[in-house]
Design goal:
alpha+beta, Transferase(Phosphotransferase), domain 1, 3 domains, eight-stranded mixed β-sheet
Length: 783
């Protein structure tokens, strides 16, 4: 980023789209907290679903909260770079104003000052004329993607929200209105103390996790390209800049006696919306604007949404607040489409990386209700932009896709391109990755090895909207959706010459007509890219469904077609046994089955994280040599019978790949040796036949097609999904739901320590019991 000096008048005009210039007469009161109160910091985030009607503001489940912080701290491990001298940090990241910065006298504040007094001091200084500094620790901003509540200690807001714990508007808008924020911690909670040679601590890691969680919440509830934060300790402070490729922080400085914090606030106040990290390809519009009213008319006439996805999830009924108008650029057609959206309806769990968001939207130019995918793709020769992949798939008429029709990289200067389409613009991209390559002396060394990758903002539009695979109305619909996914995958591989590489439950959806579709091709490889096809090392995909052979990390080969085919089998087993009751709830067999799901699909051999192997239990169940998903039990209890036969035939296709190689005795009778040699030859023949059979998708498609189509009348129409596992909050979600990047390299070492039930079968009691449990859980949640 090249910094320039600019007049504050021009800056404030440029930033008016994201901030209000009216200054309120006073700051609403909020409860005080001492800078030395280490424990109260954690109480500013709730992991409970607070509502205006019922707020149990003991708010914090401390154990759950620490798990959340731990997850976010882990997600940024190896990505905290610094410490930069403060003046250099300012010059790199914050353009200076022509006007002299305001000097704020923080030295008059008592040592035990709370966040409210600091915010009041900033406000009274008039250093912030276009933004609203507020102490926000006593209110709870709702993260609409997870229904959790988070609060920075101090926020620089774009709107003058009332700091009232029970104010619904404040709860709904706080995170989206946060332009930058600060956290107030004790000295032993300095998130970057490791940079100064101090021992990293759990409290320091918790602070890193908390800041990272807040940055994610701000980003997914607004439209951001990067984010600023600051950390205040009793006497010292740090400045921090987040983007999707890393975090760059300043050295410690005295915020009470120096002008560094004042300079940060003055510069931030004078910056344009883009310089503050706001995505200028998105504009805020009123609910009664022409664009919003046009969108509501299109929505009212649309039939694009699947069953159980209400139109209010696109734009709420009688919506009185603001909406967002996205300008989506197609980098092949060189044209924009205007899409009205409300809020993200899906999101990834962490900020650094792709940070993929999903929206239901209304395309005013297409006059259609559509799905918007917003992501930060890795800029790498190994990975093709997803829009290019979809264009290739469409060109070859691959079936069962989500209907991509428009999109590409988001231009840095959307407004200029709208005014003059003859201009060119670079894409919005991350800065930290490039900067750390130029300044390796500031790189955080990490033993788990995280490579800093540049990310580019990428946005795509789709005509077909799907519902989640776990919403299947019958096991026949589930298995048919998987068949459609297999057909799409096969056509892509054979005709378009593309291998998906991320077959997962989340990437197979069900459309409004009940058909399956295969989505999320951002991890794919084009087959002519032989270097990537043959690359070995890290497995690619979603941990829960990666093939056992790749997950074990013991094979020296690239990702093959058969790995994706095996992933389809893992999806089948996971969704059948998690969402279809086989045994009565809480029976011994039921508990064993639930334990098998966790053991087979979640576990690593040791520890956690992608560096540890797994897959042993997957290989064992595919061989039917363990108690997991035992064939005898399934034949006794799993119904309908075609489902039982389908999962057995699917499993048996891979049995030879994971069977133990027979040993040949060098001692013993000739008869024994002959029998051993015979067993070995049979093993080799079976292995060769299986490998050849799985060199194409034909066999697996035949298995699914046989049992779903030829025996269709034998399936139940009423064995829809019922979740058999205890509900898991977003803060406790395992690594299994996370993708493994196709572009990961190992670096040096880290100085800072630190992803079913079957039909009623023989026993109607299983389904009845599960439904009773589901009703009981629903009623308890309503209470």
């Amino acid at each position: 980023m090249v910094t320039t000096r600019r007049s504050s008048a021009a800056s404030k005009s440029a930033s008016s789209s994201s901030s209000s210039s009216a200054r309120p007469s006073s700051i609403a009161s909020s409860s005080k907290r001492s800078l030395y109160d280490c424990n109260s910091a954690s109480t500013s985030m709730s992991s409970l679903d607070c509502s205006a009607q019922r707020c149990s503001c003991s708010l914090v489940n401390d154990t759950r909260l620490q798990k959340l912080y731990q997850k976010h701290a882990s997600s940024t491990q190896g990505l905290w770079h610094g410490p930069l001298p403060v003046h250099e940090w300012h010059e790199r990241f914050m353009p200076a104003s022509d006007d002299a910065p305001h000097s704020i006298d923080f030295s008059t504040l008592p040592t035990n000052t709370g966040a409210d007094d600091i915010a009041e001091c900033i406000y009274e200084s008039h250093a912030c004329a276009t933004i609203f500094p507020r102490a926000t620790l006593a209110v709870h901003g709702k993260d609409h993607t997870t229904n959790t509540f988070l609060s920075p200690d101090i926020s620089l807001l774009s709107a003058d929200l009332k700091m009232d714990h029970d104010n619904i508007r404040t709860r709904n808008e706080l995170l989206g209105a946060t332009l930058a924020f600060g956290v107030v911690v004790s000295d032993n909670e300095d998130p970057c103390a490791f940079a100064d040679g101090q021992r990293d601590t759990e409290r320091a890691a918790s602070t890193r996790g908390r800041i990272s969680a807040l940055v994610r919440a701000v980003a997914v509830n607004s439209h951001r390209t990067f984010c600023y934060a600051f950390v205040l300790m009793p006497e010292r402070a740090r400045l921090i800049r987040f983007d999707h490729s890393g975090i760059i922080y300043s050295e410690l400085f005295s915020w009470r006696t120096s002008d560094h914090l004042s300079d940060f606030l003055s510069r931030f106040d004078a910056m344009s919306a883009a310089e503050r990290g706001c995505d200028t390809s998105v504009a805020t519009i009123a609910s009664d604007s022409k664009a919003a009213l046009d969108a509501m008319d299109i929505l009212a006439l649309s039939d694009a949404l699947p069953e159980k996805i209400p139109k209010s999830s696109v734009i709420p009924d009688d919506h009185q607040g603001t909406l967002s108008l996205m300008h989506v650029y197609d980098d092949e057609a060189k044209a924009f489409h205007r899409v009205v959206v409300h809020r993200a309806i899906t999101s990834t769990e962490v900020y650094v990386g792709r940070c993929t968001l999903g929206y239901y939207g209304v395309d005013l130019d297409e006059r259609a209700v559509v799905y918007v995918k917003d992501t930060w793709r890795i800029n790498s020769s190994r990975m093709v932009p997803e829009a290019s992949t979809y264009r290739r798939l469409n060109k070859h008429k691959v079936s069962n896709l989500p209907g991509f029709y428009h999109g590409g990289d988001v231009p840095s200067d959307t407004l200029a391109l709208i005014d003059d389409e003859s201009l060119t613009s670079s894409a919005q991209s991350t800065f930290a990755s490039g900067w750390i390559k130029e300044h390796p002396e500031y790189r955080q060394r990490c033993k788990n090895g995280v490579k800093n990758q540049q990310h580019i903002h990428h946005r795509l539009l789709f005509h077909r909207i799907g519902r989640k695979l776990q919403s299947f109305k019958s096991t026949l619909q589930l298995c048919t959706a998987l068949l459609h996914g297999l057909e799409s995958h096969s056509e892509a591989y054979d005709v378009a010459r593309i291998l998906h590489r991320d077959i997962s439950g989340g990437n197979i959806l069900i459309d409004k007509d009940g058909r399956g579709m295969l989505v999320d091709w951002d991890m794919c490889v084009w087959r002519e890219n032989t270097k990537e096809m043959e690359r070995i090392g890290h497995p690619v995909g979603t941990w829960r469904y990666i093939s056992a052979e790749l997950q074990a990390g013991s094979e020296t080969r690239g990702h093959l077609l058969r790995d994706d085919l095996e992933s389809f089998v893992h999806v089948l087993y996971y969704y059948v046994f998690r969402y279809k009751p086989v045994f009565p709830v809480n029976s011994v067999d039921h508990r064993r089955l639930m334990a098998s799901i966790k053991t087979v699909f979640e576990a690593t051999m040791s520890g956690s994280g992608w560096g540890n192997p797994g897959g042993y239990d997957k290989g064992q169940y595919l061989c039917n040599t363990s108690s997991h998903f035992d064939t005898r039990k399934l034949h006794q209890h799993l119904r309908p019978e075609p489902l039982c036969m389908l999962i057995e035939d699917a499993r048996q296709a891979f049995t030879p790949l994971y069977s133990d190689r027979p040993s040949v005795n060098i001692i013993g009778s000739e008869q024994v040796k002959a029998e051993c040699r015979k067993e070995l030859e049979a093993y080799k023949e079976a292995l060769s036949a299986a490998s050849e059979r799985l060199g194409s998708s034909a066999h697996m498609i035949s298995v699914f097609r046989t049992w779903t189509e030829e025996y269709q009348s034998h399936w139940s129409e009423s064995d829809g999904a019922i979740d058999q596992l205890a509900p898991v909050t977003r803060t406790e979600t395992s690594r299994s739901s996370r993708k493994r990047s196709a572009d990961v390299d190992v670096e040096a070492d880290c100085s800072s320590g630190k992803a079913r039930r079957l039909t009623v079968g023989r026993s109607s009691a299983a389904g009845a019991s599960a439904r009773a449990q589901s009703r009981s859980h629903t009623e308890s949640n309503r209470a």
